[in-house]
Amino acid sequence: MVRKATYEFQVVIEVDEDGKYVAWCPALQGCYTQGDTFEEAMENIHDVVAMCLQELKESNQAPEPRFPEVIGMRRIEVTL
Fold it and tell me: Which residues, including other chains, have CB under 8 Å from residue 30's CB and lie 6 or more apart?
């Protein structure tokens, strides 16, 4: 029987200058995608994370899903 592992990753979603939703996973190098909607970007990043994990598995590397961890994001106002 093949044992499957479940991982939990943080993902970051941003809106670019063209209105596209850009998603990336800080814990997995090169793991990013985009979508026309938030939901599409979330579906796409799920698939890309799975692909990145499969590549790690095939090269006998283990992912470290906790690092780097996004702690928070805040808006600040700066006046010049």
Answer: 52
Q: Is 14 left (phi over 0), alpha (psi -120 to 50) or beta?
A: beta
10, 44, 51, 53, 80 from 57: Cα distances, Å: 19, 20, 10, 6, 50
Q: What is the pLDDT along the chain (80 residues), one digit of tens a residue?
A: 778 889 999 999 999 999 999 999 999 999 999 999 999 999 999 999 999 999 999 999 988 877 778 888 888 899 99
CA distance 14 to 59: 30
Domain limits, the chain: 12-58
Q: What's this model's pTM, rounded to 2 decimal places? A: 0.83
The CATH topology of domain 12-58 is Double Stranded RNA Binding Domain (3.30.160)
